[in-house]
Every structure is written in C-alpha cells, then in structure tokens.
Amino acid sequence: MKLKFLSAILIWLFIFQNVQAQDVKSSFLGLDKLMGENSFFDNHLTGFMLYDLDSQTVRYEKNSHLYFIPASTTKLFTFFGAMMVLTDSTTFLRFVPNGKNVTIWGTGDPSYKYPALPNPNIKAFLATYDTIKYSESNWKNDPFGFGWQWDDYYYSYAAEKSPIPLYGNLASSRNVNNKPVLTPNIFSVEYSDKSVRNVQRNWRNNQFYYNPRTYNGRDSKVPFMTSPEIFATLATKDWGIPVKLSDSKLPPDHYLLKGIPTKALYKEMLLESDNFIAEQLLLQISDQVFLELDSEKAIEYIKKTYLYDLPDDPQWVDGSGLSRHNLFTPRTMVALTEKIYRLFPDKELFSLLPTGGRTGTLKNNYSASIPYIMAKTGTISNNHSLVGYLKTKKNKIYAFAFMNNNYPYKATAVRTEMEKVLLYIRDNF
Q: Which of 5, 34, 235, 386 has the most other CB atoms within 10 Å of its CB?
C-alpha cells in the first residue's frame, strides 16, 4: 500500500511539473511574440527585463545588458541614495550663533516657499537675531547639471540648483488685468516684440519679458538666475532681517536646524517626477556625508558604498535624469528596484510611486479596475522608460525595467505597445 501511494505521488508530481513547465514555456513564447523579432519593439532600441522577486529569477529579458538613456527613471537612483544616507527629516540649515548675529550655510533643502512641500519654520528660528550672515563656502556645484540642454533654461522643469533655494528658484507669473505679475516681486516684466505666448526670461540675466499681443494670460513659472546676491535680497525681504554675504568657512563645531520630513520630498519627486527636488536631494546627500554641496561626490559615494554590486556600472551624472549622459542597463535598473523593494513594506513603497490609472505621472496610463503597475516613468524626446513593479492576477510581484531609445514616433505609440506587453504579463505570469 505504501509503495502504491508513493508511486501515485511521484506520478502526480511528474504530471504537475510537466504542466507547470509547459505553462512557463507558453508564457515565455507569448511574451517573446510581443517583444521579439518582427514585433513593434524590433524597430528601435528596446531593453527589457522581468524579474521574479520571490524566486529571485529572471523570467524574460531582451537586450538587458545594453546601456540606455534612462531619463527620469534616474530618480530611482537618487531616491535609493537618499534613503541610505538621509534621516527621517531634512537638515535645513547649518549655523553658528554669535550674540544677536548668526552665520548660516545651506544644505540643499528645497522646501522653503516651494508650494508642493511643507515649509520649515525659519522665521521662528530667526526671531532672536538682528543680522544674518550667509556663506556659500560649502557650495561646490554649478547651477546646472552636467549635460543639461542650454535651451531648457526658461522651463520650470530645469530650475537652477542652489544651497538654500527660495520659491523653488522659480518666478511665478499670474495674470492681473491681462498683464503678468511676478512673485517674488523683486522681478518685473518688460514688453517685448518677440513672438512668445507667456513670460520668458533672457538667457544671461533676470530680465523677464512678454508680448501683450500674444500673451495667453495663463499662470506660469520661469526659473530665475541664482546668485548669493539674489539670495540675500530675497531672504532679507522675506525674513524681515538683513542678510549679509560672508565667506566664513563652516567650522567643525556648529548647530543644525532641522527641516521637514524627507518622505515629503521622496513622494513629490517620484509621483510628480520633480527634477528640482531630485537635484537638491543629491546636494543634501553630499551635505550629510561631506559637509559640502557637490552632486558628483554624492553620486560617487553612493555608487562605491551601496551600489558597488550592480550588474553593470551605471553612468550616473545627475539627480533628475535631465542629462542624456546618464546611461543604465535594464538589468542594473532591476537590481536597483530589488534593493529598494527590500527596504519597504509593499503598501508603503507603492504609495510613493506613480500607480497606473490612479496617481502621479501614471494617472492617465495603464488604467485597470485593480491597479497592476507601480513604477517610475522617464521621458525625453525619442526616449521613454518605465521601471518599477508589476502585480499579476496571481498576486505575484515582479520587478521590471522597460527601456526604449531612439524611436522615430510619438511616445504615446510606444506606451500603447508597452501596455500590451504589461497586460500580457499581468494575465499570464
């Protein structure tokens, strides 16, 4: 009897494993038909990897070893680095008091007067002082990232970096009696004959202009040029205390003024793909580790300490992904998403990421009655990527990287075909 029972079990296991193997093969072949030879994704450079987070196995890959321009999926690197280095709240200032005077140094915290974020209570801190000395001796960066396109300078997604940003380093324009009025009001708007539909700024100075004949009257935001002098003027006006420039070095013995919850930065950066917050987070990492603001040093530190074991060395040059010098492979992106996945409970992690049909940059894409895509988007002209997590109908969670470069059509066409692939995975894996 025991022998017969054992034989039945073995036969059942053989049949089960054979059926399971056939299902795996069928799923693979179906996915290969959507992505392989003669498919839509055979007409441009596409890289893809699907990774089972439970079994830690690759279920499908296409060109996963090749380097791609990642665009805003670069923010996942910035997010991971910040999680490894920063605490639960930001450091807003480093300072040294001296009686009724105080000397301050910036840390890169972007939150003050930035509409999407809570505001640190700087005025309560400054209430006991008569004069503020502001030093940029710890600033080791340029206002623009390496490889940023120069003609993006007047778009809100390319605001300059600085030690203590005010207003997100953006001038906000609102329509008053069919004329734009700027905030902060140290800036004014001049008439121009240029064919522009809203407020723009000159390339090399803070002169803003508009054309009354073509003005569309919409609210808008335009980056202003940063400098120590501009900061001192803005801070004096806003804080109500004279701010004077200083060249004092940051001493080892100094105090910290804490800021806002770092989670607020992460959520805004990931959900809305906020380039400015991403760049300032890199500066905050550098401040925490080196007591100076240097994005390049922050990147090298994260790579050597927490990302040394990635499959392929990432060419990582900025925090936001604006630069086309960033180059990552799909398998490196998947390795990064696995590291991130191990840091959080699913619910908390997925709340930070855009969710298909529900939140952030995926609000209008990948809609389903039960959300199945929680991922970071990345788009610059002729390049579109999606990196994150997919939940199947069997409640399995997969990490994936779907990267497309150098396609000659609109991004909507690429997203439409990507959705077919991701729906197939949801239903068949």
A: 386
Of residues 341, 375, 339, the one with CA closest to residue 359: 375
Question: Quick one: DSSP state of residue 226?
Answer: -
Helix H, strand E, coil C: the string for 100-161 is CEEEEEECCCCCCCCCCCCCCCHHHHHCCCCEEEEECCCECCCCCCCCCCHHHCCCHHHCCC
Position 28 confidence tier, pLDDT thresholds 50, 70, 90: confident
24: pLDDT confidence band, cut at 50, 70 and 90? low
For β-strands 57-62 and 255-261, DSSP reports them as unpaired
User: Which contacts of 242-247 are long-range, i.e. CB under 8 A and separated by 24 or more positions?
Assistant: 242/130, 242/131, 242/132, 243/132, 243/133, 243/134, 244/131, 244/132, 244/133, 244/134, 245/133, 245/134, 245/135, 246/103, 246/133, 246/134, 246/135, 247/135, 247/137
The rounded distance, in Å, linking the Cα atoms of 421 and 32 is 10
Q: Are 405 and 73 in contact (CB under 8 A)?
A: no
In sequence order, the 6+-apart residues with CB closer than 8 A to the CB of 146 are: 296, 317, 318, 323, 325
